[in-house]
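Write out the bound-state structure for adenosine-5'-diphosphate.
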Amino acid sequence: MTNSYIKQDILIKAENVSLSYGEKTILRDINFEIKDIIRPGITQGQVVSLIGRSGIGKTQLFKILAGLNNPSSGKITLHSGKPVKPGDMGVVFQNYYLFEWRTIYQSLELAAKKNPNFKGHDIKKEINKYAEQFQLSEHLSKYPQQLSGGQKQRVSIIQQLLNGSSFILFDEPFSGLDVLVLEKITNLILQVSLSDEFKTLIIVSHDIETAVSLSDTVFVLGKEGNKEGATIKKEIDLCSRGLAWNEDVRFIPAFKETIAEIKSVL
Ligand SMILES: Nc1ncnc2c1ncn2[C@@H]1O[C@H](COP(=O)(O)OP(=O)(O)O)[C@@H](O)[C@H]1O
Ligand SMILES: [Mg+2]
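---
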């Protein structure tokens, strides 16, 4: 099966990003480019995964990518050439931080009000639409402590969709979910990527299989020999391997080979 596509403009660029705490180097010389993928006749955003072992520095890189932490050296720039700043990217943290004293509806309303594309009267409709799609309709009047982890995660995702972020960063979106919820969240992330040509989803994860099954491009974060600090050891273009945009990707032999290849460099 051939899927025609072009990788075009650079949307996000990491240049020589390093991070140290005192004498300890966490990230070293990280360089990568996330490009806009165009598929003729198909509305399709980008899904990129950063894969690495636990403790390697994924959350640190996540915060730098989101503009929430500064690297010790190097920079992250956007398509405009400007450095990323807080608010440029929607972030879905691992602990799904929500305001405890606001109902789910109030949290979502606050997010939607930040979106200049929504006029006042549209907001309720938009919230109800997403709540239905993400199976949260009956939970809108509840408070976060009344929701399960999986439900809070879905609320966090809707928040980012409502506020209109073109880039959404996810930190370990698959951890701590049971199999059925994992399947749901995987499908939702795919739906989101298909919702808008300009949406770019960046997933930081140690779950190799799930990340590969969702992505069009994978960056593997690991250590090189005895050098201190993690760097990008490999970039894998899943489109060219026929592993992108395919629901049954897990059954393709190249999928297993790719997983083994990633494990060998982790
Ligand atoms: N404020 C800090 N000072 C020193 N070391 C830190 C600090 N925050 C995180 N680290 C270290 O950075 C490393 C990477 O952490 P993290 O990015 O959370 O890993 P991952 O998300 O891949 O599991 C860990 O060794 C951790 O101990
Ligand atoms: Mg982490």
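---
The chain has a mean pLDDT of 92.
The chain is about 30% helix and 25% strand.
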